[in-house]
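re: ur msg from earlier - yeah i can do the 8-OXO-2'-deoxyguanosine-5'-triphosphate complex, just paste it... oh wait u already did. ok heres what im feeding in:
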Amino acid sequence: MKKTVKVVAAIIENDHNEILCALRSPEMAIPNTWEFPGGKVEDGESLNEALEREINEELSCSIDTFDVFDENVHEYDAFIIQLIAIKGKLIEGQPTPSEHSSLIWLKRENLHSLVWAPADIPAVEQLVNEV
Ligand SMILES: Nc1nc2c([nH]c(=O)n2[C@H]2C[C@H](O)[C@@H](COP(=O)(O)OP(=O)(O)OP(=O)(O)O)O2)c(=O)[nH]1
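and the outut:
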């Protein structure tokens, strides 16, 4: 049976209405696709705690996180992901990648120009359609 992983991902928007997009490196699982940065929820953590920890670890900055924005289950060949996207705001530092190959800030209307990890597509659609 495939394993299900619970992953939280941050939708971080700046003052110019741009959203932070992160490129998974060739060494990461699902390589060379764009995602919202985040990672797996550990035992005993709330979703918001997990996301704030992951962003600190991966991007060396701090965010405040809000309510769940989108949640969906996607089946990959090797595992099933429950992807929970949560909006966030930078409160300290600037995002600096340690594991990702690249970071960019994009306006909603340009999000479709990237090749997203398949599990992220519902959250991208919801953002693009947001008023
Ligand atoms: N962080 C994140 N992972 C995503 C997204 N979409 C998507 O399919 N994934 C997949 C890629 C990975 O297989 C898994 C998350 O694992 P990860 O490697 O980023 O998380 P992690 O840092 O907690 O993992 P680990 O190093 O502890 O194993 O979910 C997304 O938007 N954000």
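cool cool. The longest helix spans residues 47-59. ping me if u need the other ligands too
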